[in-house]
Amino acid sequence: MAKDDILEQQGTSISDPKLALHPAYSVTNIQSKIQTLDGKKLTYSAWVKLFRLHATAYQVLNHIDNTPPPAVDSPEYSSWKELDALVLQWIFSTVSDDLLPSILENESTARAAWLKLEK
């Protein structure tokens, strides 16, 4: 029996939004899309433009703009938290080794790191 048939019997399908993979998870090498922010080869303003463009295309702009996260007790919070960690990893991996220590925190969000870099 095919996987599609099994899912259909269970009342779900591959097109079920709950089973769909968020577009951000398809990014395998962020450095190939956004160069490293170092202030020399790539300026902050250029990095912001590239990062925002990428975040928009992969539907995670709400993790770096002023959009508030869902409430902790909300059913959406868990998936939001996972995506936020992914965006935070994108930020960490696209800043220079000199800038990284200034944005590392134990319990940080992508937005918090974004704001620290802005300062």
Fold and architecture overview:
The protein is mainly α and 119 residues long. The chain has one domain. The chain has helices at residues 3-9, 44-57, 77-93, 100-103, 110-118. Helix 3 runs parallel beside helix 5 (110-118).
Keywords for this entry:
119 residues, mainly alpha
Query: Mean of residue pLDDT?
Result: 86
Question: Which stretches of 5+ consecutive residues score pLDDT under 50?
Answer: none
Class by SSE composition? mainly alpha
Taking Cα atoms only, what radius of gyration do you get, to the nearest Å? 17 Å
Q: Terminal Cα separation, in Å?
A: 57 Å
Number of strands: 0
Percent in helix: 40-55%
Supply the number of structural domains.
Answer: 1
Task: Give a quick account of the main beta sheet: strands, pairing sense, barrel closure.
Answer: none
Q: What does the oligomeric state look like here?
A: single chain
Summed up, the helix count is 5
User: Strand fraction band?
Assistant: under 5%
Strand-and-helix sequence, N→C?
A: HHHHH
Which geometry do the CA atoms define? globular
